[in-house]
What we know:
It is built from four helices and two strands, in the order αααββα. The chain is mostly loops. It has three domains: 14-42, no CATH class; 45-123, E3 ubiquitin-protein ligase SopA (Pectate Lyase C-like, 3 Solenoid); 129-272, E3 ubiquitin-protein ligase SopA (Pectate Lyase C-like, 3 Solenoid), CATH 2.160.20.80. The protein has a two-stranded antiparallel ribbon with strand order 1-2. This is Pentapeptide repeat-containing protein. It holds the Pfam family Pentapeptide.
Amino acid sequence: MPDRSTTQRSDPRPSRRRLLRRVGAAASGAVVGLSGCLAGLGIGGEACNGHTIESEADLEGADLSDCDLSGADLSKATLTDADLRGVDLRDADLFLAEFEGADLTNADLRDATVLIGALTKADITGVNLSGSDLSNATLSGEELADVSLANADLTGADLSEANLAGADLSGATGVDADLEDADLAEANLSGADLTDATLPNADLSDADLSGVNLTDAIFPTVDLSGADLTGANLTSSYPVGADLTDADLTGATWLDGTECETADCGGLADRL
């Protein structure tokens, strides 16, 4: 019987099948340790709709719609003009990825690592960025309609002239944020903290501002018509010239600390 230790093979390199078999028999820690080797052989990484998902991947124009890419490494990937509608990118690494012209409608990017400036070059209608840290971000004039920024940190962010119509900013922290001329019509800002925020000329018509903290906020000539301000805190704010037509201030704290018992705060809303 031949000595197996000395038998020569016509091709000394292990086949992919044999390598996979060895990996399958190894402990889970070993699989992780061999991931770089497997990728080098072209058998590692994830795939969706026929596209390999990996760092620095060229996915220009790729159809990745509805793919589950949660936790994927797409750092430095080229995703220009890609179809990313409804894709799950939670916890994904998207650092320095390029999104110009991409369609990210209704994509889920919660806890993803991504440069927000790159996303604004794409269609991000309805994107879920809940809990994101956007403190001091410059988003002036950006299209953020229907985006979810619930519980996001927008401290000091520049959102002037941004389109946030219908956006979900419930529970967001927008202390010292700049929302001048922003469109927040029908947006949900319930429970948000907008202490010291500036909102002159902003459109907050029909917005949900229940329980919002507007202490020391500056919002002259803002449109608050039809807005829900129940339980809001307006202490020491500056709403001179604001339109509060049909707004509901029941339970809100007025500028001087008075609690509003009626929708028009006892007629105080008409005296601005």
